[in-house]
Amino acid sequence: MLKLARPEILKIEPYKPGTSKLPGKKEVIKLSSNENALGISPKVVEALRAWEPKLSRYPDGACKALRQKLGETYGLNPEQLVCGVGSDELIGLLCHAYAGVGDEVLYSQHGFLMYPIYTLRMGAVPVKAPEKNLTADVEALLAAVTPRTRIVFLANPNNPTGSYLSKDKVAYLRKKLPQDILLVLDAAYCELVDADDFSEGNELVNEYPNVVVLRTFSKIFGMASLRLGWSYTSPEITDILNRARGPFNVSMSAQVAGIAALNDQEFIKQSKAHNTKWRNWLATELEKLGYKVYPSQGNFLLVEFGNAAAVDDHLRDQGIIVRRMEGYGLPTTLRITIGKENENKAVIAALSSYKK
Ligand SMILES: Cc1ncc(COP(=O)(O)O)c(C=O)c1O
Known about the structure:
CATH superfamily of the largest domain: Type I PLP-dependent aspartate aminotransferase-like (Major domain)
Radius of gyration: 20 Å
CATH architecture of the largest domain: 3-Layer(aba) Sandwich
Number of helices: 12
Distance between the termini: 54 Å
Largest sheet: 7 strands, mixed
Bound molecules: pyridoxal-5'-phosphate
CATH topology of the largest domain: Aspartate Aminotransferase, domain 2
Structural class: alpha/beta
Strand content: 15-25%
CATH class of the largest domain: Alpha Beta
Helix content: 25-40%
Order of helices and strands: EHHEHEHEHEHEHEEHHHEEHEEEH
Number of strands: 13
């Protein structure tokens, strides 16, 4: 008889990814996973085709060329970058390295669900700090700190609310947090932000040894399937992550694609412009239909529907998949990823025919 799994694993509610299929529908509009409406850069696809895969060989475990390219692109020291299998892997590694049994990991009330999942995996305790207007509240986060707090995760901007904290507020949070607590700034959506007072937090990494900025290729770069993310942090934490990660964690195809994606800044510009235009359009149209839309800096909108389950069923009947929010404690809302022009228009057409 197999020994039972460690009890903390059984406390984990498995992450439910966005659905991509509907029974009986050949074609669907998938707006459930915050993927890039414009897909992936054709230059990345070209680079992957041109790449002669040496599939029998291990990838470069250090991701040297990719880190070099990231360093040049963002003006960062490549020695302080670690690549991961999505930023997701890095969230897990940070919990693994810094949170043990009984330690506390703090995040804001509607923070990204992988924070409590990886916390529970370590036998640590996830602690939520209340938000104000679906926005992280720095004072509430500080008030929730205990002697057992090891990590604070802040998604900025946050998924699924779309809200963000200004550069000054994040700096204040770092200053006021005890210095033996790690602050992880998860900047998965940072390239999509329009607010002038926002920063992904690199300047805090330069100032403090205990700040990590996480980035991903899954959102604006449209590479969700390739699984690639990275961290920028102090040499000390970089060393810890390099010890904790698998020796060949990032596949060579992801590395090749990452470099090609960074070489196509035009695609990034277009993706951002598309997102800003259609996020504004969709928000305005939803408001005209009488729905409350939360301000968003990401590639999605969180919308108050009241009976969200009925609205979701109606959208599914029309072949449109958005994200239910029960898992985030927001059962009256739906999260809608910004899509292509025809997809956004289909959402509004479907909701216009919905009888409230
Ligand atoms: C806030 C946030 N962080 C991290 C991730 C993980 O991204 P990935 O593992 O694809 O890099 C997501 C994905 O949706 C996210 O919304």
